[in-house]
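From the shared-data thread, chain only:
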Amino acid sequence: MRAVATKNGVAYLGGDNPYAEGPRGTLVAWNPVTGRELWRLDLQQPRGVAALAVLGRHLYGLAREGGFFVVDLPTRRIVHTADLSGICPGFAALVTNRGAVYGVSDTTVFRFDRKTFAAGAVIAGSNGGWFSGPHINADERGRLYTLRGRNLVQIDDVPPR
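Structure, as tokens:
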């Protein structure tokens, strides 16, 4: 397991299969109170899951090396996929903030459109000097924090409505 997101008491777990056979990326809905799996979905990704975030009825996910998917949680169906390897060549991280989902890769800070799921650069060429893979977080005022080069940066982005 590499990624976790939660909503309404359900933990969504994303992982990778280290074996040569079987699906690479799997999503599992887990009830942490009962310790039981609720459902499982093969994400049809060539690489394992690197990051997850939930916004509204959608679970956003990034697989290693740029695979992007969106799952409609009530129907448990994949409703969108895209190749984001141009801005997300390796591992990535996601966070929800100000009604949007933001991502960061080794090279770019980006935001997803809530209607089209298109990714747009917030900071291109951030080239974070990460040791353990890229990270992004938000404070209580909605400001984002990540690295640009080896410097911590604060981003005050307001997504369109």
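The chain has no helices and 15 strands.
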